[in-house]
Write the structure tokens for this entry.
Amino acid sequence: DRIKGIICRYGALSSHLAILAREQGVPLRIQTDIERYIR
């Protein structure tokens, strides 16, 4: 359960970064690294 909570937290963080990236029009290499780490 603790691991799932951490993954959910990082998932929310990566999606938040994706939204910020779209608003600013900046591709985030960090976000793709996070997604690669999760999946």
About this structure: The chain has a mean pLDDT of 75.
